[in-house]
Write the structure tokens for this entry.
Amino acid sequence: MGPHFILLISALIFSIGALGFVIRRNPLIMFMSVELMLNSVNFLLIGYSNELRSIDGQIFALVIMTVAAAEVVVGLAIILTIFRTRHDLDVDHLDVLKG
Amino acid sequence: MFGYAWLILLAPLAGFIFLSWFGERIPRDRVGWIACGTVGAAFLATLTLLLEMSVLEPDQRLNHVITLYTWITSGKFTLNLALLVDPLSVFMFLVVTGVGFVIHVYSIGYMSHDPEYSRFFAYMNLFIFSMCTLVGAADFFFLIVGWALVGLASYLLIGFWRDRTSAVLAARKAFVMNVIGDVGMVIAAFVIFEHFGSLNYVDVFQAAPKLFMANDDVILLITLFLLVGAVAKSAQIPLHTWLPDAMEGPTPVSALIHAATMVTAGVYLVARCHVLYALAPFSMYLIATIGAVTAVFAGSMAMVQYDIKRIIAYSTMSQLGYMFLAVGIGMFSLGMFHLMTHAFFKALLFLGAGSVIHGLNDEQDIRKMGGLGRIMPITHATFLIGALALAGFPLTSGYYSKEAIIMSSWHAEMGNFVFWGIAVFTAGMTAFYIFRLFFYTFMGKSRNAEAHPHESPIVMTGPLMVLALLSLCGGVLGPWVSRFLAPVFGFEIPHFEDGLLETIALLAGIGGIVTAILLYFTGQDRLEFAKQALAPIYDILFHKYYVDELYDFFIVQPVKGIGAFLEERVEKFGIDFAVDQVGVQLREVSFYISLWQSGKVRIYATNMVAGMVVILLFVVFL
């Protein structure tokens, strides 16, 4: 469990999240991908907190989790509303703001 | 100690603000009395000021600067909101608020049928406020503020009947001509500040004799630029053409602004800056020359006009020429004295003319009048008094002031026989044209069968009688004016005794009257004969020396030509094309940029990730 391993895992999880966000069309899955990216960062912070014997990273992780929770609430509410009005959850069809 | 002097400014200002906001909503009859009340209050405050000043020793009457507060402080420049109370400003306050009050009362009757009654009185109060600012200012800054504000009030009132094209054009002409003068004033103020470091009268006038020798270039520059303002405001040659056209305004406006008060601002300015002018004999000589030339030019034009108000307007120019002549030869308080008597009798003549116009349902052509003497007895009698005073008939007020000016134009240090000759000749013409007007209007038979003239109500004839009394007896104030203003100018006017000159001047006036009687009262044949004999001169006079045409040819048309060229070429193919192209090209470019904004979340996300990767690569490998 050296620092390289932590970095590698974190980068891997982040890349999976980013890839998932880009290629999936279902907003719920995209959301999960976002959570994945956030958690990869959390993983990194906690890992290094342990490595460097400092509590700061863990506090940061807690803050990120709180923000993520709040963000999920808002995001799910938006997705719900979109579904109610359009009966369609394909993000590729949600392009009314195009220039 | 003269703190309440602010009331003179604030009362009319309050009247203006109140009438502008609520004038439409309160009963008509109250509008007029509110307007009169504010001016009356200002007049009472002036009287108190006068009384309080009279008990002071003469040398303590000067330089009372009443500061309300400091408005601007910037480096060494300080600008106070301040009034200067000294005999000169008190004298001017008296004329402005006194004659102003009488004319306000008259306006209640004259404007009674006008639908925009309250707007008229609001403007009139604005004018009184502006004029008092001009007169009471303690520095050149507020002098210019007042100077511009009276120009504004004049513009608004000339164009009061805004649905008449001629009135709107006349208002514009007056404004443009006055702005030429304003520019001169502003430049003069710049030069003064550059060399004195202050704009306060007290500072400037005390420093001027110490800093500069007589005939210094700086003083010459200042006085000449101030003179541009004075000439424009007082309708002297060559900036005189606006005044006759200004008669498009209601008659009380002509009486108040374009005869009694505003147009005398130029004379006041020269008198106020007499310290500077004393150092610039050339400017003084120029003022006297302009005055004399204007007097004779305007007087001759007045002899052949047919519009009752225009005749009196030319007469005003001519009399202002006398005042310029008086201050130009250094007889400042004589100029102020004539300013006062002129305010009385010229306001009287204008208001009398207004009464006639009112009685004849807005007829202004004297050829369509006649025989009004019996129908309008009060107007007739008061107008006769005004005419006699204007003609300088012995014992009327005009006699004392004009006679003194004519005498001084020979005997004063700076006078000479040319000025005297012009002054006497003009006196003869003055008597002639005013009695020509008088005979046309009041004597003979009516030349207008349709009109049903009637005497005006008491609210109009009352002011006429007050002014007639002042025109008749105002002359006795002469010595008092000279003594009262002596502390300001530093000397009393010497009284010149010369029986021969006096007789000649008197004969010129009487001769004018007799000529008018011979031509217009007793003999129609003689008139026709004279007209034919003098046809070329008559033609030039009738067309006002073609000055308007000259200005049109040399200034207005070239400017219009340049304007047309700029509009057709520069505007359309230069400015418009450039502006249009900026718009067209921007739209073109933004069309391509907007393609980036696809609206697809996944493309945005891809771009973000790609950008992130690029930045990462950049950071890691470079």
About this structure: The beta strands of chain B are 64-74, 77-85. Chain B is about 75% helix and 5% strand. The interface with chain A takes residues 593-602, 605-606, 609 of chain B (CB under 8 Å). The two ends of chain B are 82 Å apart (CA to CA).
